[in-house]
Write a structure and sequence with these properties.
The structure holds 2 protein chains of 2 kinds. In chain A, about 45% of the residues lie in helices and about 15% in strands. Chain A is of the alpha+beta class. Chain B is an all-alpha fold. Chain B is globular and about 85 Å long. The chains are: A alpha+beta, B mainly alpha. At the A-B interface, helix 2, helix 3 and strand 9 of A face helix 3, helix 7, helix 8, helix 9 and helix 10 of B.
């Protein structure tokens, strides 16, 4: 009996593990994890899925069974069922058993918690890479330790532990890369932390999970996990008032409202727009906002601002 | 004083009075009907808004509504369904039923009762007037988190009208809750001790006490937000020394118990319906009653599980995980007791019973997904995603609203003296049951795939599109079920089958009064209550007497 007790869950786990591979990214479980914390979270999911799955089958099974077994079959309304008023032992058991099950789930969470929350020590890929993530209406901005700035697309080297500091200058946003761990809110007046260590080269989607206004749906981005060589090239491309940054700003910040080719959408047309041709006026607009346009550039340093104004002028200002 | 075998249906007094009679009425039954009718009207409005949302999300990059309108839709939909539908319709049932169930003549404070209803109606009117306000309706979600709901990010008057509407609704609910507590504590008929009270009355007691505890808190929070917006204070403005998280703590200290305000009376209805249609007493009366109190108590200690992603300390997150998991214990007790009530019963599948059984089937899923959200590291994945949307619709729609529909079909003959049509009722149930699951089951999967809530569009095709499309189709099926309910109401208005006092052969005192009950409620002296099933006791006594007379 006790061997059966052990073998059964083990077999179930094995079956689920193989099922896990089959259901990858179908929505039956969190997306395929590519970071240790995301992986531990998904293990928690599997455990809870098994436990709640069993309870689900028991309850719904009993419900269907009773409905079939005790259906009226044309008996008169006046005919009573068995007049049972309760059973103290059953009530006690139905209190204690759930407590034990929940204690088990909670214990599993506490066992997995260090893997999820603790930033791992330095490894062969180097010490932790510390990046500041600024969420603002309606884009993500990344500040690298060497002063480089990127918008919407975060580039990190493979296998390197990345420690994120998440902040917001305006409303609340929530940083969420499903494949690389859970979400953490970017809250004005607070500094939050999270981390990941990408174990596979790839292109991972970032979303804002907290309603942040009109373009919440389009506050997306990417984490690109690249080789160390490609990472060095990325850093070089993003130093100072770089064109690469200017293009990122247009694609990630301006295009959300002004259209992917500046043709105008929710916001006015950029092509041939007088303000775009005038870097001073444009800087003023980006820093302060106007009417429906949020102050998207309020937090930019001068290099970032110059990258934006010169790119926009070059592309749309005829200049 | 034998119960009349075929009582003449009472000619309800509003049929004499006309509109003035309704406006000036302080009768708990009329006020209850006003509450229920008004809530059903708002239910149609809120449901219509959700159909617009589902139309917008049916396929990727849809342009059915604008981004602006979409944010308005979910804000007004959520606010409507919680504050203008579920809370007031439960208040309506409570109003109509509590005095009857406890053998009383009316509520303790009839005028206060009328005040509650009119504040509710005007609150709803204020919310919907925001469609005509400068800047349009509120757009910051039914939670209206700061700083998004501050003047800088939400200019215009929609947000202010939202605050005003909620203030009015909070006052309405508070007055109503005080009235319920006063009534239940003081006006029970002779012999009705606490453990002989109908379980629905227990649940209204818990509902009312929770409301009294939490409404002042949201009132304070709303006032602070209003002052921030209109007077220039900065309670929630971080740059000026305020704190954005303070609002979330205040909101959820109210908001989470509010969720139990929405579900406990629904559970109370289930506890009334299942025994009657199983022809059995409720299994474990005391366990069900005390688990109601248990859920209400624990619900005050779980609010920060809505805030696991804000970066609370590990100790706090662990505390709120454990308290949240504890809610599952009394909830599990209830589900076990309902199941055990059907055990060896004579199950009759009239529409109220179908909704009650559907409630158990669906609510169990909603309860179980709550465990995923309680385990805080997992919550970091599913929080604010469509998984959460699916979860709370499983408890609020599949739970509360299914129970409410069960309650409508069950008490309709008592309220109006005529049955709703059973055949249409079964169509309503099956369309709603299937439509509900088709709508909300795929939303779990969408959340796990990474779809955040409150997005007006998405650009992924494939599974995202498939699940979203299924969800939209399901919403249409559900809408059809609801539509058939209203057809049912309309068709049986004059033609529905007339009933006597007690068409379901039920156990509680409301069935001792005529259908519909006259202004004084009971035409015969209410019998001394000797158990939680006074009407069954009476039936047995009459049978015994008939047997004696026959002999």
């Amino acid at each position: 009996m006790s061997r059966l007790c052990l073998a059964l869950p083990a077999a179930l786990l094995l079956a689920l593990a193989s099922a896990a591979a089959a259901v990858a990214d179908t929505g039956l479980a969190p997306v395929t994890p590519e970071s240790p914390n995301a992986n531990a979270i998904r293990q928690t999911y599997w455990l809870i899925l098994i436990v709640t799955g069993v309870i689900f089958v028991l309850v719904e099974g009993a419900l269907v069974l009773f409905i079939v077994r005790f259906r009226g079959r044309g008996r008169a309304r006046a005919q009573d069922g068995a007049q049972i008023h309760g059973a103290t032992k059953l009530e006690t058991a139905s209190t204690i058993v759930p407590v034990l099950i929940l204690a088990g789930i909670a214990a599993f969470v506490f066992v997995k918690l260090p893997t999820i929350k603790n930033v791992p020590p330095a490894n062969a890929a180097g010490g932790a890479l510390k990046i500041e993530v600024v969420g603002q209406q309606y884009y993500w901005q990344f500040h690298y330790p060497g002063g480089q700035v990127a918008v919407r697309r975060m580039v990190v080297p493979l296998e390197r532990v990345v420690e994120l500091t998440v902040v917001s200058p305006d409303v609340i946003h929530s940083w969420w890369v499903p494949a690389l761990g859970g979400k953490i809110d970017a809250i004005p007046g607070r500094v939050n932390h999270t981390w990941f260590k990408a174990e596979k080269l790839g292109h991972y989607e970032v979303r804002c999970a907290e309603l942040c206004g009109l373009e919440h749906a389009h506050m997306t981005g990417f984490v690109d996990v690249v080789t160390p060589a490609a990472y060095s090239k990325f850093l070089a491309d993003h130093t100072g008032a770089a064109t690469a940054l200017g293009k990122e700003i247009f694609d990630g910040v301006c295009a959300t409202c002004h259209g992917l080719s500046g043709q105008g959408d929710y916001g006015p047309r950029l092509i041939g727009n007088g303000v775009v041709a005038d870097p001073k006026a444009l800087e003023q607009l980006l820093r302060a906002g106007k009417n429906k346009m949020p102050p998207v550039g309020a937090s930019w340093n001068q290099d970032t601002m110059d990258a934006a104004t010169s790119y926009l002028k070059g592309r749309f200002g005829g200049g | 004083m034998a119960a009349r075998a075929e009582p003449q249906p009472y000619r309800a007094d509003w049929k004499r009075g006309g509109i003035t009679g309704w406006i000036t009425s302080v009768d708990h039954k009329r006020i209850g009907i006003l509450y229920i009718g008004t809530s059903l009207f708002f239910f149609l409005l809120g449901g219509l808004l959700s159909l617009f949302m589902r139309a917008q999300l049916a396929t990727p990059n849809e342009h059915f509504v604008t981004r602006n309108q979409y944010n308005e839709l979910f804000t007004v939909h959520g606010t409507t369904m919680i504050f203008l539908v579920v809370v007031p319709i439960l208040a309506g049932f409570g109003n109509f039923l509590v005095p009857l169930m406890i053998g009383a003549r009316d509520m303790a404070f009839p005028r206060l009762n009328a005040f509650s209803y009119w504040m509710f109606l005007f609150g709803g009117v204020v919310l919907y007037s925001s469609f005509f306000a400068k800047g349009g309706p509120p757009k910051a979600g039914w939670t209206s988190y700061v700083p998004l709901s501050e003047l800088q990010y939400s200019p215009g008057h929609g947000q202010d009208l939202w605050i005003l509407a909620l203030h009015m609704l909070a006052i309405s609910s508070l007055a109503g809750a005080i009235n319920f507590v006063a009534t239940i504590h003081n006006m029970r008929t002779a012999g009705m001790t606490w453990t002989r009270m109908p379980l629905f009355v227990w649940s209204i007691e818990a509902y009312a006490v929770l409301l009294i505890l939490i409404l002042p808190v949201i009132g304070a929070g709303l006032t602070m937000l209003l002052l921030d917006r209109q007077v220039g204070t900065h309670f929630f403005v971080p740059d000026e020394g305020g704190n954005a998280l303070l609002y979330q703590h205040i909101f959820w200290f109210f908001g989470h118990p509010e969720v139990y305000v929405l579900i406990l009376p629904a559970m109370g209805m289930i506890s009334e319906i299942i025994p009657v249609f199983s022809r059995k007493p409720i299994f474990g009366y005391k366990a069900v009653a005390f688990s109601t109190i248990g859920i209400a108590f624990i619900s005050m200690l779980v609010w920060a599980h809505h805030m696991f992603a804000v970066g609370l300390s590990w100790g706090l997150q662990s505390f709120f995980m454990i308290t949240t998991m504890l809610v599952a214990v009394p909830t599990g007790v209830k589900i076990l007791n309902w199941l055990a009530t059907t055990w060896r019963g004579n199950l009759l599948f009239d529409t109220p019973m179908l909704f009650a059984l559907g409630f158990i089937a669906i609510f169990t899923i909603g309860g179980l997904t709550g465990i995923y959200l309680a385990a805080f590291p997992l919550d970091w994945q599913v929080h604010d995603s469509y998984f959460v949307v699916a979860h709370f619709h499983y408890v609020m729609f599949g739970g509360s609203v299914f129970a409410i529909f069960g309650g409508l079909f069950y008490w309709w003959p008592k309220i109006f003296g005529r049955m709703l049509d059973e055949r249409l009722g079964k169509w309503t149930f099956w369309l709603m049951f299937v439509g509900f699951n088709v709508t909300f089951m795929p939303q779990h999967f969408l959340g796990l795939l990474g779809m955040p809530r409150r997005v007006y569009t998405y650009d992924q095709g494939g599974l995202w599109e498939a699940y979203n499309l299924a969800s939209t189709i399901g919403a249409g099926v559900m809408a059809l079920g609801v539509l058939i309910f209203f057809v049912n109401v309309f068709r049986t208005r004059h033609r529905g089958r007339r009933v006597g006092n007690d068409p379901w052969v039920a156990d509680t005192l409301e069935w001792f009064a005529p259908s519909p009950p006259p202004p004084e409620n009971f035409t015969q002296p209410v019998p001394y209550v000797q158990s939680a099933r006074p009407l069954r006791d009476l039936r047995l006594k009459l049978k015994e007497r008939d047997a004696r007379v026959g002999a």
